[in-house]
Write a structure and sequence with these properties.
InterPro entries: EngB_GTPase, G_ENGB_dom, GTP-bd, GTP-bd_ribosome_bio_YsxC, P-loop_NTPase. The protein has 10 helices and 9 strands. The protein is α/β, with parallel strands linked by helices. The protein has a single domain, classed as P-loop containing nucleotide triphosphate hydrolases (Rossmann fold, 3-Layer(aba) Sandwich). A 7-stranded mixed β-sheet has the order 2-5-6-3-7-8-9, sandwiched between helices. It has a two-stranded antiparallel ribbon with strand order 1-4. Bound molecules: guanosine-5'-diphosphate and magnesium ion. Guanosine-5'-diphosphate binds next to helix 6 and strand 4. The site of guanosine-5'-diphosphate (GDP) has 21 residues, from helix 6 and strand 4.
Length: 284
């Protein structure tokens, strides 16, 4: 179905969350001790960019999902392990036949090699620092689908990236997964905010459209580039999103390094997996 393939540079090497320990902003509680402006930037990263947008730009779609602090706190509990709520790496699969059974809602993360999939999952799971998530220093490391269980609530899947040295059957693997996984409730398609939409991202976008399942764009590494560049890339992305049918209109901006957007994304995942009920203030 998708015969175009794009190859990036090779690489090896990884480190684990447990080796790094929990980040000092892993929990919303810790972040809430920061000054208001800084906290707002971490919670809703788009708010920092908003003043720089021209008046003519419609910002409505950039902030549709605006949960309350209570909702964010509720969601965070799901990402905090306890004796009755285990968060752990579950299994890996190179073929769909080896994927685990489908008895809880699932979300998956797809995107080019090196876009930040594993880092994002590690940031989302930073309250469970013992979960082993391999994060490559260079592209091309994740060649399997890695499944992580969040208690009995949902599963998260780190998908192999497209790019150099992607497994030969990579496209088939992802396509097969998107086409057949019944419990998949949301696909998160990651786009590098510092480089903007690439041809490979457009192919992935077409693929998501073709499978006609709901998906969301996550803009990664927003700490890495100047605001002007990020804004330009965001507006280009917004144009592309308006051409789609199944993409959630709001792109989620994140920095897995600085924790911007992580609390909001946790809340969105908790929401789409049906794990929490949101209060009235949320417009999603
Ligand atoms: N500055 C910055 N670097 C990041 C961020 N997320 C990931 N990276 C870096 O990008 C590289 C690839 O990340 P990784 O999570 O392995 O990408 P994957 O191949 O999509 O799983 C690694 O060197 C990460 O440290 C981020 O939010 N900010
Ligand atoms: Mg990875």
């Amino acid at each position: 179905m998708f015969c175009r393939r794009l190859w990036l540079k090779p690489g090896t090497g990884f480190w684990t969350a447990s080796q790094q320990g929990a980040h000092n902003l892993a929990s919303f509680h810790q972040a809430s001790l920061l000054p208001q402006r800084k906290l707002r930037g971490l919670l809703f990263p788009f708010s920092e960019l908003e003043p720089h947008l021209a008046c003519s730009v419609d910002r409505g779609h950039f902030q549709l999902f605006q949960p309350s602090v209570e909702d964010i706190t509720k969601a965070e509990k799901l990402f905090s392990p306890s004796s009755s709520h285990k968060i752990d790496y579950h299994t890996s699969a190179v073929r769909m036949e080896h994927a685990p059974s489908q008895n809880q809602p699932e979300v998956c993360f797809i995107g080019r090699s090196n876009v930040g999939k594993s880092s994002l999952i590690r940031a989302l799971f930073s309250l469970a620092p013992d979960v082993e998530i391999r994060v490559s220093k260079t592209p091309g490391h994740t060649k399997k689908m890695n499944f992580f269980k969040v208690g009995k609530a949902f599963t998260m899947v780190d998908m192999p990236g497209y790019g150099y040295r992607a497994p030969k059957d990579f496209v088939e693997m992802v396509e097969h997964y998107l086409g057949s996984r019944k419990n998949l409730v949301r696909t998160f398609l990651l786009v590098d905010g510092s480089v903007g939409l690439q041809e490979a991202d457009m192919i992935a976008l077409e693929m998501c459209e073709e499978f006609s399942r709901p998906y969301v764009i996550v803009v990664t590494k927003i700490d890495k580039c100047r605001q002007g560049v990020l804004l330009t890339n965001l507006l280009q992305l917004q144009d592309a999103i308006t051409q789609t049918v199944r993409c959630f209109p709001q792109p989620f901006l994140v920095s897995s390094l600085h924790f911007s957007g992580i609390y909001l994304l946790r809340c969105f995942i908790a929401h789409v997996t049906g794990s929490i009920q949101l209060g009235d203030t949320c417009r999603s």
